[in-house]
Amino acid sequence: MAFSWRGRSVLLTGATGILGSWIAVELVRRRAKVTAVVRDHVVGSNFYRMELERKIKIERGELENLSFLRRVINKNKVKDVLHVGAQAIVGAANRSPLPTFEANVRGSWNVLEACRLAKQVERVVVASSDKAYGEGRKLPYTEETPLRGEHPYDVSKSCSDLVATAFYETYGLPVCITRCGNIYGGGDLNFNRIVPGTIRSLLKKERPIIRSDGQYIRDYFYVKDAVDGYLVLAEAMEDEALHGEAFNFSSGNHLKVVEIVEKIRRLMGLRLKPKILNQVSAEIREQTLSCEKAERILGWKPKYGLERGLKESIKWYRNYFRNA
């Protein structure tokens, strides 16, 4: 019988973020019983714009609080956990690393420990990142590439990734790990990131700002493809042979910052040239991912091309600023 989310009790962390909000939408569509851990009311976030607070249960608290997580999991008889909550702003991590380590490392081990102690949990998907691999030595990264984060955010992801592996190897906790490229799409309100920042600038008829020299290379991964990857993996965990495995998910679009800005400019029909500040430090210069394992084992491929993903994103931000 095919796996169904209908009626399943799912715990989602990071629900007010770009990825979490779109995961929540899809789980609601599939009629899961979703409980979201929410720390702060993020004004204007996709979560509240789509009125998800009316469709899922909210538990207010912090990932750093183990007893809170245990109560939430037990009270709601949670069977499936999608842990995507994190402090995900690289610049904030560089300026003040301890809150990032607390949220991303302690938060992850607390989620995993709460799941270990709750006997009914059947699957846990933990969000790592391409940043967990650290500076590229051999590209593209495969899942066999060592985890060697060097800067605070990257290290937090290397650590949470390894902690998840430890819970599988030592306790048999049914865990899988995702490592995604740079996720973009409607709902990302961190305008220091290149895609939303560029769209906002162009909507305001201003020159886009590039904080780096524009030559940094990334995979740009549309959020709806990321949601699909997470759910395909979670469903595939019916096969216990997959437990403990990590999977890369991305688009295969390897672009320089100046190239992604140019694509957005072209799609929006504006000729405003970017302002290149060349002020970035303590960030990885080039990162690309191989998703061959996800394709081979899970049968997963991205469904959205870069142009379609960017067009949908531009439309979302037009509506957002029109109604702000």
Search tags:
single chain; 324 residues; alpha/beta; Rossmann fold; three-stranded mixed sheet
List the SSEs and their pairings:
Elements (H helix, E strand, L loop, with lengths): L8 E5 L4 H12 L3 E6 L7 H4 L7 E4 L5 H10 L4 E4 L6 H6 L1 H21 L5 E5 L24 H20 L3 E6 L1 E3 L9 H10 L5 E2 L6 E6 H14 L9 E4 L4 E3 H12 L6 E2 L15 H7 L7 H18 L1
Parallel strand pairs: 1-2, 1-4, 2-3, 4-5, 5-6, 6-10, 7-9, 8-12
Antiparallel strand pairs: 9-11
Written overview of the protein:
There is one protein chain. The chain contains eleven helices and twelve strands. It is of the alpha/beta class and 324 residues long. The protein has one domain (9-185, 220-252, 286-303): Rossmann fold (3-Layer(aba) Sandwich). The strands form three sheets. The chain has a seven-stranded parallel beta sheet, sandwiched between helices. Strands 7-9-11 form a three-stranded mixed beta sheet. A two-stranded parallel ribbon has the order 8-12. Helix 1 links the parallel strand 1 and strand 2 (33-38). The chain is globular and about 55 Å long. The model has no long low-confidence stretch (mean pLDDT 95).
